[in-house]
Amino acid sequence: MKTFRIRCKTEEESVIVCRKHVFSAVLAPLRAELCDGGGIVFTDSNVYSLYRSQIGRYLADVPVYVMPAGEEFKTEKTLFSLLEAMAKAKLRRDSTLIALGGGVVGDVGGLAASLYMRGIACIQVPTTLLAQTDSAIGGKTAIDCCGIKNLIGTFHQPKAVYADAAFFRTLPAREITCGLGEIVKYGALDGALFEKLCAQKNLRDLGFLESVVPDCIACKAEIVKRDVSDLGLRACLNLGHTTAHAAELALGTYSHGACVLLGMLYEARLAAMFVRTDEAYLARLEALIRTAADFDPAAADVPRSAARAAFDKKNTSAERVTLVVPVSPGAYETLELPYQTYQSALERIRRAL
Ligand SMILES: NC(=O)c1ccc[n+]([C@@H]2O[C@H](COP(=O)([O-])OP(=O)(O)OC[C@H]3O[C@@H](n4cnc5c(N)ncnc54)[C@H](O)[C@@H]3O)[C@@H](O)[C@H]2O)c1
Ligand SMILES: [Zn+2]
Questions:
Q1: Which of 33, 189, 206, 325 is the most exposed place for a label (fewest CB within 10 A)?
Q2: Taking the complete model, does pTM exceed 0.70, yes or no?
């Protein structure tokens, strides 16, 4: 009898760097290397129109593939067009894809890099607050398919992530609120960050946002390190997200981060109703959520979206809704509620807002 052993590569290393002047200090020096091994810059139409001159100046000769901006283009069509562009650019196994953009570009670019020739290197250059604090970290890649968000994807750790807060200067207000949704989520997972957020008068101050990006990255990196393949601990990153995803699907007009703020507000109140919580803390968390939101939470008809929560990926049965709810500083609990209980509780919460 012969025995064969295959050592699986379980520990891909990913370097995450927060630094200024990412074009001149990081990407320009990489140019020669990229031309040598072949490389491609992948971005979207909005980012390209804003940063075209820097891409041309610092990454001249590197081919650029531009997807139309927006979640509706996070599709197999965009993915395959990008893969074709990579083939036309004659990328090799030692080539690198640079994903320059928000979470959509990062997810599609990461997926293309993981598929092309069974995997080439990917460098993430996240340009939104949400991407710098959340989506570019952790190696999850995806496209939406059959009307289901992130249905097709892989785990592919980026070789490096370069986060430059200079990109925030061109972000519309809506995208700042979107990023704040995830930042407040990290505040709910990390007591020290929570205090820092509560002490800040203007959460939209760009200097302040620059200072919290590394805090969020540190929090996510620690969680990912302990659960690379999303088998347990990573579930805490879904805090507030069951209600948020349902609201995002049903309400349409609110961004993902705005829905995360709504989701956390409702789920903090659900926690107060159904599990033992630190009430004073939850009142402070709700005040922080209201400061981060640039809209009136009572105006959003969150209970209308309850039915969508019945199909959440986290649910363990068709009749029950699984929620990751905040309970005390830095602590969360998994709460399972019968669907009818969840729906009527959401209605009660909205009436009391
Ligand atoms: N992989 C993960 O772990 C993970 C985690 C969270 C979210 N996501 C995914 O991330 C996506 C959301 O990311 P997002 O909020 O960054 O959305 P996005 O990529 O659509 O970017 C939002 C908008 O901002 C524009 N934009 C990007 N950078 C800009 C800049 N510097 N200045 C001006 N405009 C700019 C984009 O063109 C787009 O119109 C979703 O598809 C979500 O599923 C992935
Ligand atoms: Zn989120």
A1: 33
A2: yes
